[in-house]
Amino acid sequence: MKWNAISNRLLRLGAQLLAAMSAYWLLRQTGLYDFTRSEIEGLNALIVLVGSIYSVMFAFTIFVIWGQFNDVENLVIRESHSLNDLLRLSHHLNADTSRRTRRAVTNYAQMALESEWATLGERRRDTETENSFNKLVSSVIEISPINPAEEGIHQRMIDIVRIAGDYRDDRITKSLTRIPPTLLWLVNTLAAAVLLLMFVYPFHHGLAGGACFVLIALVLFFANLVMTDTDNPFKGVCNVSPQPFADLLR
Question: What is the pTM of this model?
């Protein structure tokens, strides 16, 4: 968890809430809330309607994003397990081939840790890591078995590296998939509408109104944070762990 990643956003939120509370106090000195008090039934209906639409849209968005986040995490584990199987089988080959295979896997794992994680967080493919994986595939395919036993192991290693490639392709694709801008705009607009309706709601006591507004603002802020943070599995507060790749280097 990288809570320092949201420190600036929390500071901005605090400043915005302070400004909103100042405006709220000033507006209570005017006749605005006397006017909205006469429309309280309509405001109640509107809050329920907009809040219901927001909750449905937010739940749908989180369901899709969280499923995608878990898929990326599972694909990282599966890919690393496949590479670990590759290392395990390489021990049954001759020393030179085993050493080349381990070097290729190690180079790829290091590139994934040092470069690809950050690059995917910026929504870009890392060509150097892709080249490193291609070299790994080539090193496996180009193995020359020296006896029938090694031929069987070699074929199994080719199958494993192909499976690892499929996991990698799926991981990259899902990692680069983001919320469609129109959907994100809709969810944020609904959240802003709920917040605005709470701002103009005619509470009898200003302190109660301010407290409710701040509470709703905090709930909507953290809801938005969860949505946008899990949308990027490699950057933010909660990220997919690179530990399975780090274990390959031991």
Answer: 0.84
